[in-house]
Every structure is written in structure tokens, then in C-alpha cells.
From TrEMBL:
It is an enzyme of class 2 (transferase). 3-phosphoshikimate binds at residues 28-29, 33, 168-170, 197, 316, 343. Residues 14-420 form the Enolpyruvate transferase domain. The lineage of its organism: Bacteria, Bacillati, Actinomycetota, Actinomycetes, Mycobacteriales. It comes from Rhodococcus koreensis. It is found in: Cytoplasm. Keywords: Amino-acid biosynthesis, Aromatic amino acid biosynthesis, Cytoplasm, Transferase. Pathway: Metabolic intermediate biosynthesis; chorismate biosynthesis; chorismate from D-erythrose 4-phosphate and phosphoenolpyruvate: step 6/7. This is 3-phosphoshikimate 1-carboxyvinyltransferase.
Amino acid sequence: METVSLSLWNAPRAEAPVVATVALPGSKSITNRALILAALADAPSTLTGALRSRDTDLMIDALRTLGIGIETAGADTTLRVTPGRLRGGAVDCGLAGTVMRFLPPVAALAEGTVDFDGDEQARTRPLDTILNALRGLGADIDGDSLPFTVRGAGSLRGGRVTIDASGSSQFVSGLLLSAAAFDEGVTVHHDGKTVPSMPHIDMTVEMLRESGVEVSTPATGGEADTWRVSPGPVRAVDRVIEPDLSNATAFLAAAAVTGGEVTVPLWPAETTQPGDAIREILLAMGADVRRDGANLTVRGPQQLTGIDIDLHDVGELTPTVAALAALADGPSRLRGIAHLRGHETDRLAALAHEINSLGGNVTETEDGLTIVPADLHGGRWRSYADHRMATAGAIVGLRVDGIEIEDIGTTAKTLPGFENLWATMLSAAAGTGRKASF
Ligand SMILES: O=C(O)C1=C[C@@H](OP(=O)(O)O)[C@@H](O)[C@H](O)C1
Ligand SMILES: C=C(OP(=O)(O)O)C(=O)O
């Protein structure tokens, strides 16, 4: 059997309350949607503040392969996207849900065959729902999971399709994002348990509308659980990408678990990013959360209370919330997140296993986790190639001596240089002279 040795990172222990200002790079979800919309647009456009990370670079590489011009202009976070005729090629999805679910509809519009593959671990992520939906809309596809092949015919009929999107909101977002370019547009009807991560579908709808695409949703008088995109041009829009609020949650959590104070600049006044929900979550756990203009500041409490919360809409925040809960003063229940078993890894199993291996008391439920705080000891924290598992381990490491995180580099999926940002945050705290009381 092949043995893989993964590097270990000594998660820094906070010697004092963390006090820092941390600026985060652009949102993964907005960047990858903006890239698709720019690629399908009627003219070139510029994206400013785009995230450059493994997931977004995979999207950039794939779109270039399919015939789209993408140049950096000045900063590598400024992208000039020039639409072109879509052609065939080979696409590497890595472990990126947004690449494996948003690109097959684009590939169906290409003049040529597009071969998709990705990381070994990506082969178990659910995909059949969107591939079957595309077949129903007229696409010619071989396979039900990675690797698979889309034989693009230069156009796609589109029309009405019924899917069960309870496994991932990305099935709906993927179909809607390209649908203005389908001959008949698309009507996506969901039939099944509730769709998770609704703010991400709202993000898709909002960005489509900004691009001049007509979208009807249940919220705007449409049929329940049904989204309709009319066929028509996608207008080129120059976009400034918001900072990634899900990535920000680990840094804000650092203030919460050390009684410190962390400020994140450029927090949007209004946003569809689910990371915004961290404000309510930290407030409910006893932290002080304030906005001062565009700055969001979290001040940690003396005692962090446990939380009973349905994270169905904001499942992406679960690893951060689980780390907070493991360090809280009372028990927590995280519910509504069965679909996390199909994320980068089975996040429910991974979180329970890693916290328990440090002496924690976490039980997996059918749709979540019960976390009872316990005295944690040092040890190895596995990341399972999951960026958010790695950052959750870093949060725990602030309060527990001797946490060694496997493969911290996996954070590059959405936040390259995480270790440096984390160390800079902690060195800012060291200069304040504040004493630890945790
Ligand atoms: O559309 C998106 O950008 C995302 C949707 C969500 O997926 P699920 O609905 O599969 O949870 C989220 O967890 C993921 O990180 C990003
Ligand atoms: C679930 C996530 O990613 P993906 O876009 O790969 O689904 C995530 O970033 O938490």
C-alpha cells in the first residue's frame, strides 16, 4: 500500500488575546460565478479583487482551455475576461465543487468534446444530479461522476427539468448560470428535501440579474421551488469582488476564543455571502460584534456560550462553528447539515473524529453534530484535503498546546498563504501587551 507522508504544521497557541486587523482576499463563490458570467458575456469585462487560489485558478485554466481569454491586468487579482467561441479540451476540477458543477453546462455549449477529471477525492462528490439534468436538457454526456465527458454540440436546447437538489445548491446554481445561452433558457424545478445553502442560490440569481439576465424565482412570484432563466444575452459587467466572508470566519473566531478583538475591513453592508451569518452566530455565543463603517469587529467574551443552531443555509461555516463549540463553556448542537457528508470530505465524520482524538466529546447525528466541551489535549489534526478542516484545527490550536495540523497547505484551495496571515494576526497580538485570561 502506498504511504503518503503529509507535512505537519505546529498550530500556534495564542499567548495573549488576539488583537488584529485582517484583510481577506476575494470571495471564491463570487469570483467563480463572475468568471462564468464574464465568459458567456457579449463583450469583455474586468474583475477586480478576484480571489487567486486553487479553486479559482482551476476555473481560470478551464475557461482558457475552452477558448476564453483571461489576462491579468496589473495585479494578479485584476482579470480581464474576453469571451470567445467555446471549444473542447480537458478540464481539471481539482476538488472544487464550483468547477465540477458550474462548468459542465458551459461545456455542453462548446464546439467539441470536454473531458473532466479531478482529484481522487473529488470522484466521490455528488454530480449525477446535474449531469442527468443536462442530459434531460439535450446534452450528450458519458459518466455520472468524475471523470466524465461532455460532447458539446455548440448549443443546447434547454427547457424544463426536475431535479432533487437536496444534496447541493450548486446543482441549481450550475444550471442557472449558463442557461441564458441555452436555446430555450431553463426552468429548474426542485423536488426533494429542502435545498441547502440558499444564500448561494440567491448569489447566483443576483449576479445573473446584474448581468441583465431575466430570472424568476419563488421569491419573485414564480412557482415554489422553481427557478426560470430566460434565454438572451449576458451583459458584460465590470465587477469588484467582495472579500471572502467564509474565510474571514476563522479569523473572527480567533477573537472569540481568546477574548481578543479582530477587525475585518471591507465587510459588505449587504451581501448574499453565507459568511455574513457569522455575525449572528458569534453574538449568540456571547461575543460583541460591531460594524464601524465598512469594518466589522468581533470582541471575544470571557466565556463563550454553546449554541443550538440549524446551519442548513450556511453549511460552509460548520467547521468554524464546530471549533468554536469545542472551546465553548456549554454544549452545542449543529443541525440541518447532512449534505456536508458530500463536501470536500465527510465533514461531520471528520470534525467528530478530529475533536474526539484530542479528548473531545462530539457525537455525529443524522444531520449534524452534538458537541460537549471537554479538556482537549495536543495531538495530530488531520485535514482530509479540506481547507476548512485545516482552519478549524488552527482555531482549536489557539487554545490547546501541541496541535499539529496535517497538510496546512490544503488551505490554498481558497486561501493561499493562510499560515502567514494567521502568524501575522498573532504577532500583532503579541505587541499589545494584553494578558491571556483563557
Ligand atoms: O455555490 C457555491 O459557491 C457554494 C455553495 C455551497 O455548496 P453546497 O450547497 O453543496 O453546500 C457551499 O457549501 C460551497 O462552499 C460554495
Ligand atoms: C463546500 C465547499 O467548497 P466547494 O465549492 O468545493 O463545494 C467549501 O468551500 O466549504
